[in-house]
Design goal:
Bound molecules: guanosine-5'-monophosphate, zinc ion
Strand content: 15-25%
Pfam family, one: HIT
Number of strands: 5
InterPro entries: Histidine_triad_HIT, HIT-like, HIT-like_sf
Distance between the termini: 29 Å
Protein name: HIT family protein
Domain HIT: 6-113
Active site: 100 (tele-amp-histidine intermediate)
Largest sheet: 5 strands, antiparallel
């Protein structure tokens, strides 16, 4: 547990949260400043900052809860779809340094945008560039 982390505080019951799912490993609660009704955050109970820091077993638990909760969130919000995503690290917009998956309900007429817009300008990559990047990823696993 990290003392100055709001999500550790919610998991410990020291900070109020509208909890919608709770096990020994994973907790989910409503976002305090929601982008849509039903905006839900799914966190590992232990304080891990990024996906890279998460032990594989816990990663499976977090993704299982995202999988289980997403249809429930959509049904409760009467949504037409959802964006399910992590801001992984400050460069990606992560503000709370306790890993959390967002489930953001989406509506046909909500005026929002697809996840493609979050990364800024698209790079101009050649076929060779793409081959090299794919090779680098395979080698980095
Ligand atoms: P991030 O930018 O780190 O991916 O998203 C952090 C999210 O946490 C934001 O959507 C913000 O509204 C939410 N948030 C920040 N502090 C609290 C809090 O104390 N309680 C709850 N329930 N949500 C919070
Ligand atoms: Zn924490």
């Amino acid at each position: 547990m990290s003392n100055d982390c709001p999500f550790c505080g919610i998991v410990a019951g020291e900070i109020p949260g509208r909890i919608v799912h709770e096990t020994d490993d994973v907790t989910a609660f409503l976002d305090a400043n929601p982008l849509a009704p039903g905006h839900t955050l799914v966190v590992p109970n232990d304080h891990h900052e990024r996906l890279d820091d998460l032990p594989e077993k816990l990663a499976r638990e977090v993704f299982a809860v995202l999988h289980q909760l997403t249809p429930a969130v959509e049904a409760a919000a009467d949504a037409d779809g959802s964006n399910v995503a992590f801001n992984n690290g400050p460069a990606a917009g992560q503000e709370v340094p306790h890993l959390h998956g967002h489930i953001i309900p989406r509506f046909d007429d909500d005026g929002g945008a697809p996840i493609h817009v979050v990364a800024g300008n698209r790079p101009d990559l050649t076929e060779d560039d793409l081959d090299a990047i794919a090779e680098d990823i395979r080698n980095a696993r």
